Amino acid sequence: MIIKKRPKPNPALHKLDKLVGIWNVSGEVCGQVSYSWMEGGFFLVQYVDIEGEKGLEFIGYDEESGTLKSHYFDGDGKVLEYNYNITDTEHIITIDMPGIQGSFHGKYSNNGNIITGRWHWQQDGENMGYMAIFSRLNLS
Hints:
Elements: E1 21-27, E2 31-37, E3 43-50, E4 53-62, E5 67-74, E6 79-86, E7 90-97, E8 100-108, E9 114-123, E10 126-136
Antiparallel strand pairs: 1-2, 1-10, 2-3, 3-4, 4-5, 5-6, 6-7, 7-8, 8-9, 9-10
């Protein structure tokens, strides 16, 4: 019997650990998002329900570009691709696709349980955006 060596997730994925859990969204939009690791640890899965719009996102490490990338699937059948840059204090998401370019710039609170930021994007020539506060629910 040949035992196949299983690949290991890229260590850069550990930056996403701070997102695991359920977050309430408030500000100029309201809703909830949750993050959990897919079995194997290669993808962080985000379930989105903001203003009744639902979606599913898979965030992983792209070896070719050396970045955290995601694919977001919305309820209208669109697939969007994002890049993530997460540090101890900043949460930055960018999108650069035909017809839509923009970013979310957020800051973490000292304890990491609040992200305050603003989405800004241009879609088909129209400027759009909103301010959002993500507050982690305490499950204990």
